[in-house]
Design brief:
By secondary structure, this protein is of the alpha+beta class. Helix content is 24%, strand content 27%. Helix 1 packs across helix 2.
């Protein structure tokens, strides 16, 4: 794999930071200066600032993201999730939850597990509670569940359940950009509140907005086995 992906998978730094280290000649692979985009193997001797890359403990966190926080590891972005958490070790968000939405986001330094979760062909479930700007009828629920044409694709069939006259739960197995907002808009509705409450086996439960917790060993094991 490429050097920046390996360092990210091992929880050392982001791919962007790895590229910066390479540009500053801070990374050596098998006795030679690393070049941008270099391919490496796990068994290669890799030094950063003339020191072997450290073995990092894996970190797995469930965060209840508030509205207004952007799911990016780029600290230059205003109200980014990394600055919001101010966690002392390198971590990054697994996927995204748009700025206007709230709820569950996973944070980790384990690039391998993150990639496994994000692979679209795995069809992992994500559950949301959605409130619209006006009451909806059964035709809306049927249309949403059967698939909606957005962004030149038709969304996968999904489970939709009514909670109140203007609020429903929805379980998706894909992650198109602003998918639920665009699906709702296709029927003439606007989303006024969107909260993700579950990712695969991880639930938000009683986690208050802005708070986070570590995943249990059982939860992590289940994520690897899905």
């Amino acid at each position: 794999m490429r050097i920046n992906k390996l360092l990210s998978n091992h929880g050392i730094c982001s791919r962007t930071d790895a590229n910066r280290f390479i540009a500053k000649n801070r990374i050596i692979v098998n006795g030679k200066l690393c070049i941008p985009g270099q391919w490496v193997e796990e068994e290669d001797t890799i030094l950063i600032d003339n020191k072997p890359i450290p073995v990092k403990d894996k970190i797995y966190i469930a965060l209840n993201k508030p509205v207004g926080i952007t799911c990016t590891a780029e600290k230059s972005v205003e109200s980014n999730i990394i600055s919001f958490m101010n966690y002392p070790e390198y971590i990054f968000p697994v996927g995204r939850l748009d700025k206007a939405s709230q709820g569950l986001i996973l944070m980790t330094n384990d690039g391998e597990l993150a990639n496994k979760i994000l692979e679209s062909e795995n069809e992992h479930e994500k559950e949301y509670i959605v409130t619209l700007n006006k009451p909806f009828d059964d035709c809306f629920m049927k249309g949403m569940s059967e698939g909606v044409s957005i962004c030149s694709v038709t969304t996968r069939p999904c489970d939709v359940s009514r909670l109140t006259e203007d609020t429903f739960s929805i379980i998706l197995t894909q992650g198109l950009n602003k998918q639920i907002r665009r699906m709702s808009s296709a029927f003439g509705y606007k989303v006024v509140r969107l909260e993700r409450i579950r990712i695969i086996n991880i639930k938000i439960d009683e986690l208050e907005g802005g708070m986070w917790r570590y995943l249990t060993e059982k939860e992590v094991s289940e994520l690897w086995n899905v």
